[in-house]
Design brief:
This protein is mainly alpha-helical and 72 residues long. It contains four helices and no strands.
């Protein structure tokens, strides 16, 4: 794989991660209103796709923002 191909792959990966972060925050805001800044910042620092996918499910299923926060 060339350097250019590696950079493209890395860019796509980062794009997927950013979309997952934004989706989590969108779900939380739609369900519970404003998301506290510290929680928003914690979500923005996550870089593992599997972890973000898990949190995406938890955001959709949690009964409250506090319940979601315990999964962080």
């Amino acid at each position: 794989m060339t350097l250019g191909e590696q950079l493209i792959q890395e860019g796509r990966k980062e794009g997927r991660l950013q979309i997952l972060r934004e989706d989590i925050l969108d779900i939380l805001e739609a369900r519970f209103g404003d998301v506290p800044a510290e929680l928003h910042e914690r979500i923005e620092t996550l870089a593992e796709e599997a972890r973000l996918k898990s949190l995406h499910r938890h955001a959709a299923l949690a009964g409250s923002l506090e319940e979601f926060r315990t999964t962080m």
